[in-house]
Amino acid sequence: MARTLFFFFVALAVATHLPSAFSLTTRQTETDSLDASVSSSYGVTAAATTDSLRGGSPSATYAQVCAQIKASMSSASAVYYPGDPVFKWLSSHWAATSTQMSACVVEPRSAVDVGKILQLVGRYRTPFAVEGGGHATNPGFSSTPGVHISLNSFKSITYNAASQTVEFGAGLSWNEVYMALEPHGVSVVGGRALGPGVAGFTLGGGYSFKTNQYGLTVDSVVGFELVKPNGQVVGVTQSSDSGLFFALKGAGNNFGIVTKFTLKTVPQGPIWGGIVTYMDPTSLAAINLATSKFSTQSTDPKAAMLSTTAYYQGMPLTSVQLFYDGPNPPAGIFDDFLSTPSVQSDIGTRSYLSFYKQSPSNDTYGMRNYFHTVPIAKYTPKIMDLISNLTVAYGNQLASKSLVFMTLVAEPFLPTILTHSTSPSAYPFTRAKAYTPFQIFLSWSDPSQDAVFESALKRISDAMYAGLVAEGQADSLLAPMYGNYAWGGTSVARIYGTNLVPLKVVKLRVDPTNVMGLAGGFKV
């Protein structure tokens, strides 16, 4: 039982989806002030960045737009309606919180057909959603009452040994990419759990077990195939359009629909790692100290880990996922974890794909789930103790409110992770200092308790910030927040910061009528 639970918990910990102490009112105020910054800095009016982007009201029913889309696309593409099992399959999400009933699901099978869809939803101001892997948890981020666009058919994978790159479609999961690359002895800087799609993960930034060696996923991107809001299909690289290339590296779905990614590949041989589970209170305290030590003292870029503190049926539980990008780690790196009494361990040398398959995060399909994040530079012993205390306190408080699972996840990385690329990216908005994306995850079953769990999410976040301030890490209050974990009410200024103004300028150029504003997500 413990083995199954902890595979499950670590899967939750690393699923990359889309959860601050900042209110929606603050979010709008900050956006308005940045509109003024655009006006003064770039010679355009605030009206050009807000009012002119709103567009007109819908001039056709959703059903009529669905019918026009069907008529405009090639015969290879398809439209599905409620009642069709394919409709249910293509519109489903891992989290019930992010699922909506749309008027139709459109499955384009070419970038050209994606362009036709964007032209029509833009013309009629029809709300739409774009779904890749379906692991968003925020309501409306990849779902809609209007037109649901599924990228399921974009599944191509082409490895180029000469250029040491791989081009792959936006409808793939990381599992599929790793499987295709394994026979070639290479891999990519990609996701850490089964299930999440490549699209949202990459467009949000992307943290990997290889990030200590190579940086974020966006740091290894060399090209995008983008369908612009006007329907034009273009290749975007640093040389072809540096501004748009910068914007696509971390600013989500604000500039069109990406249908293909091209990433650098990296050599991949056997790795060492696995999951270790702890339940004894003495062991839990020892693992907190070991995690803090790893966070502050580890210098080997091939070593990585996750430390998950979970609440399940009244009990605090801890697991660590250890990783070394080689057949065996040097002595000393993980000794504290391995010498602490555990209830389960499957540590060993294996293929990277085998290691990755440990965490089947789709096991949580259908629950009501929220993520949130707090940027942390160092996991001190007091911060680790705070994580344990918050897990128990809020687990006990929420148990009677239909709590299913709760996990708080320390994700330590080296302070050098942002030095692997000199090319600017939308996320993070500063590379002067690296912050790790500490993750808060809550899962529950009763829809009537949504507000309770949303409140708990923010209170846990506030408690973490208070603890960080007490530990001399007050800079976390203004540090970049990882959009793939951030709760939907998070201020866009906390995610994009000083990059928000140049992102707005790119937005005005690429999407002057704000077609992409008809879809959910963190909007610039």
UniProtKB/TrEMBL annotation:
Matching Pfam families: FAD_binding_4 (PF01565)
Top-level taxon in the UniProt lineage: Eukaryota
Positions of the FAD-binding PCMH-type domain: 98-268
The entry's keywords: FAD, Flavoprotein, Oxidoreductase, Signal
Signal peptide start and end residues: 1-23
GO molecular function: FAD binding; oxidoreductase activity
Keyword Signal tagged: yes
PROSITE patterns linked: FAD_PCMH
Family, as annotated: Belongs to the oxygen-dependent FAD-linked oxidoreductase family.
PANTHER family reported for this sequence: BINDING OXIDOREDUCTASE, PUTATIVE (AFU_ORTHOLOGUE AFUA_1G17690)-RELATED, FAD-BINDING PCMH-TYPE DOMAIN-CONTAINING PROTEIN
Name of the molecule in the record: FAD-binding domain-containing protein
Record organism: Ephemerocybe angulata
